[in-house]
Design goal:
Strands 11, 12, 13, 14, 15, 16, 17, 18, 19, 20, 21 and 30 form a twelve-stranded mixed β-sheet that branches. The longest helix has 24 residues. It is globular, with a radius of gyration of 24 Å. It has 540 residues and is α/β, with parallel strands linked by helices. Helix content is 24%, strand content 31%.
Length: 540
């Protein structure tokens, strides 16, 4: 199965960017590819069986491979396998592929935890052959109790059976442990959203997500509740509801997204509160996109923030640090939006048998780190992400941190209250890269610390910008949290500007609808102003 990522990546506010980048990637791949249609039909072929396994345990292991014809210098298209990007294909632990009789190079990986295995094959004089490929892990997260999940995924432009095949094969090849498949609406496009049918089916006993979960990767449902003023314009925002007993309706709000139906008179906060009453986990989507992110974070209604899940706004300062510098506790999460176009995942610790509820509880507690490349380890004075360290006065804290990745991520950075406090360069380590920190951090004010790779950290195999960032460890001093009044004042002005935009663009059926939307923003302003008046150094 071939999935054209240029058709399915990104929501309406980011689809142009993704279409452009994916068209470029596909064009680049096409120049390097040797397809069956262009091959000489009289040229002999070989039936190649690829068997992937874990080099340590010898257990079969699904993975992602790329074959190159060394005679022509072109990549070989793998008919029947799932195309990812730049001629990489996801395959099961054993795959039978027809290849040209020639000298070939095979590259193989599993998720983000294995080194790249590169083998040369000679099929010039054989009709069939078997190659056994050991994959060497430089880390094994699951064996350490860390579970990787994708919190934002939809599928479109596939048949139902193709979508189920995709869900069975791709997450396993990528080393994902948990995937949330989510429902969403937009007219008239939703007729192409095949994941909607699978999610609706999940509310019935024995649904397809339950059936898929018996095969290895755990699946759970979700909904993307959202509002836009126009097809491609910003609106109140997009928010995920995960592990739902039922859909929250309306799923999508406003005539801009529902082809003229309804009004802009329902704030996202109404649906968020209903979802929380149902026991759903609530995650804001797309970094800082949308006008209701600040009000809902200020109200304590958001369990985590999805970063780099199909958004063009990648600044941590815009989408994450501003809340932390007000003393808010907001964990990091991530997903991939339309298809699994990247290795993006969020890791959290889970003890015992994995359930979606356990995993989401650990995520909401802030015990997470996100990545599409480097694996992070982080502690401060034996405390970990999500913990709070209570200090009576300024002092020093021991920071232990490390990163390991298949591709060079350039460096490891310790962030203290939004600024880089320490850097360690990456170094080659066999067939991967590592970086380590062991130093004492001088702490002179309350706040937070977190670990990340640089915001410019190079590319991964799918030509995506690499990222990795932990949720923070919080620092209290003499009972006080950090509170920066300048950040609060800037958010008050941002909210006021958003209210002006809503007044200019919104369509309301009554004064009551208008008032309901405005009240969400007025309350956030009142909360921020109260905090500012109470203290310029700590939040309540």
């Amino acid at each position: 199965m071939f999935v054209d990522a240029s058709l399915v990546l990104g929501h309406e506010q980011t689809v142009s960017r993704y279409q452009a980048t994916q068209r470029a990637a596909m064009a680049k791949a096409a120049l390097l590819a040797e397809g069956q249609a262009q091959a000489d039909p009289s040229r002999p072929t070989c039936k190649l069986t690829i068997e992937l396994h874990d080099a340590k345990t010898k257990n079969p292991l699904a993975g992602t491979v790329r074959l190159t014809n060394l005679d022509s210098g072109k990549a070989v298209q793998l008919t029947g396998m799932i195309h990812r990007a730049l001629n990489w294909y996801s395959i099961p632990a054993q795959a039978i592929i027809e290849v040209p009789c020639s000298k070939l190079q095979l590259e193989a990986i599993h998720g983000i935890e294995s080194e790249t295995q590169i083998l040369e094959l000679d099929t010039t004089a054989t009709e069939q052959t078997v190659v056994k490929v050991p994959l060497y892990r430089f880390c094994d997260q699951r064996s350490q109790g860390l579970v990787g999940g994708n919190t934002h995924l939809h599928l479109m432009d596939m048949t139902y059976s193709e979508a189920l095949d995709y869900l069975k094969k791709v997450p396993e090849a990528d080393g994902l442990d948990l995937v949330f498949l989510s429902h969403l609406r937009r007219l008239p496009d939703e007729s192409r959203y095949i994941s909607n049918s699978i999610v609706e089916n999940s509310f019935q006993p024995g649904g397809d997500l339950e059936r898929l979960s018996r095969q290895g990767v755990l699946y759970a449902n979700g909904e993307e509740h959202r509002h836009n003023f126009s097809r491609g314009g910003e609106g109140y925002g997009h928010v995920m509801f995960l592990d739902m007993p039922k859909l929250i309706r309306p799923v999508s709000i406003g005539p801009g997204i529902m082809e003229g139906q309804g009004s802009d008179g329902i704030p996202l906060q109404h649906g968020i509160k209903e979802a929380r009453d149902d026991g759903d986990t609530v995650i804001w989507c797309h970094n800082a996109r949308g006008f209701e992110d600040v009000p809902n974070v200020m109200a304590g209604l958001i369990d985590a923030l999805n970063i780099n899940d199909g958004s063009t706004a990648k600044s941590y300062h815009d989408s994450f640090y501003k809340y932390l510098n007000l003393g808010r506790k907001v964990p990091f999460s991530t997903g991939t939006d339309w298809t699994i176009y990247d290795f993006s995942r969020v890791y959290v610790p889970v003890e015992g048998e994995l359930t979606s509820k356990q995993w989401l509880t650990s995520l909401a507690a802030g015990k997470s780190f996100i990545t599409n490349g480097a694996i992070l380890k982080f502690s401060v004075d034996n405390h970990f992400s999500g913990d709070t360290i209570a200090l009576s006065e300024p002092g020093e804290l021991r920071v232990l941190a490390s990163a390991a990745g298949r591709n060079d991520f350039h460096a490891l950075e310790l962030i203290y209250n939004g600024e880089i406090a320490h850097t360690a360069p990456s170094r080659p380590n066999e067939k991967h890269f590592t970086a380590e920190m062991d130093f004492r951090l001088k702490v002179n004010e309350p706040g937070w610390v977190a670990l990340r790779v640089p915001e410019e950290a190079g590319k991964n195999e799918f030509d995506q910008d690499q990222f990795a960032h932990t949720s923070p460890i919080y620092l209290e001093m003499a009972g006080h949290r950090i509170f920066r009044a300048d950040v609060a004042n800037s958010l008050v002005e941002e909210i006021k500007e958003n209210m002006d935009t809503i007044n200019a663009q919104g369509t309301f059926e009554s004064d009551e609808q208008w008032s309901a939307v405005m009240q969400v923003h007025r309350q956030a302003i009142a909360t921020l102003q109260e905090w500012i008046s109470q203290s310029s150094s700590s939040a309540p």
